[in-house]
Each structure stands twice: as structure tokens, then as C-alpha cells.
């Protein structure tokens, strides 16, 4: 979820464990709608209540995957929403985030950010007028 304030600054949170910066995000609770999860996670992680305005894109791939502690691999499909803040002052949550604040675009380049966030930023800078999704590369076999 990318929330821009009225000055064009982007709301980011700093992960408590890694120290890396990224947009507020998280996993759906059972039966939760993606839009509700985006609003809830932003409130929980950053203390900002947002209004979702549009879908920026749907992302997957190597930067949106991980490995569980037992070795099982997982792949995520991530829906990124655009949003505007309605109320709340950025703050850390002490559980997942150690900091939360708005950054001007020029300031973000100096931050240590998650690789998946860098992918999203690159796409946003190149693809502002339409919803992004990666092209299909799958084809049926010729047998």
C-alpha cells in the first residue's frame, strides 16, 4: 500500500528486526478482503488510517517469495493499492516497526529498503497511468 500525503511524500515503515524500510504491508487474516488488510496493516504498523484510491498493481516473482523455518518455500501474490491518509500521525508500533514517517521521493533513494519495495517503486515510476501486472510467460507444451 502506497500512501502519499498532500505534499507528495510517501508513508514508509522501518522493520524492527532488519532495519529495512518499506511500505506498510502484511498477510490477510482468514476471510479478510485485501482492501481491508491494506487499511488495517497501515493502521497497525504506522498509526495512519487511509482511504484506498486505486490498485497500483499485482506483483509476484523472486522478490515476493520466501522460505519457512522448516525449509518449505512460499510464493506470494501481492496487490499494491494507492491510498491517501485520512487521519493519524505516523508512529512505530513497537512489535513490527521501529519507525514510521513520510519521505519525499528524493529522500527514499538514500534509505536501505526491502528489495520487493524497490521493484514496486521502479514499476510505479515507469507505469503511472495503468494497473501493472507482470506479463504471462507460460505456454503449453507442444506434445
From TrEMBL:
Domain Nudix hydrolase: 1-126
Keywords recorded for this protein, A-Z: Hydrolase
GO MF terms held by the record: hydrolase activity
Cofactor requirements of the protein: Mg(2+)
SUPFAM superfamilies with a match to the protein in the record: Nudix (SSF55811)
UniProt entry tagged with the keyword Hydrolase: yes
Source superkingdom: Bacteria
Pfam family, one: NUDIX
Protein name (Swiss-Prot/TrEMBL): Putative NUDIX-like hydrolase (Modular protein)
Origin organism lineage: Bacteria, Pseudomonadati, Nitrospirota, Nitrospiria, Nitrospirales
Amino acid at each position: 500500500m502506497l500512501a502519499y500525503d498532500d505534499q507528495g511524500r510517501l508513508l514508509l515503515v522501518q522493520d524492527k528486526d532488519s532495519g529495512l524500510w518499506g511500505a506498510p504491508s502484511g498477510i490477510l487474516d482468514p476471510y479478510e478482503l485485501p482492501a481491508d488488510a491494506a487499511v488495517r496493516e497501515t493502521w497497525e504498523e504506522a498509526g495512519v488510517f487511509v482511504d484506498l484510491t486505486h490498485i497500483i498493481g499485482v506483483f509476484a516473482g523472486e522478490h515476493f517469495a520466501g522460505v519457512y523455518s522448516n525449509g518449505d518455500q512460499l510464493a506470494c501474490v501481492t496487490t499494491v493499492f494507492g491510498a491517501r491518509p485520512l487521519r493519524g500521525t505516523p508512529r512505530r508500533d513497537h512489535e513490527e516497526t521501529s519507525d514510521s514517517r513520510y519521505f519525499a521521493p528524493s529522500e527514499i533513494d538514500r534509505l536501505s529498503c526491502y528489495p520487493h519495495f524497490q521493484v514496486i517503486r521502479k514499476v510505479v515510476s515507469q507505469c503511472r497511468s495503468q494497473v501493472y501486472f507482470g506479463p504471462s510467460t507460460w505456454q503449453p507444451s507442444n506434445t
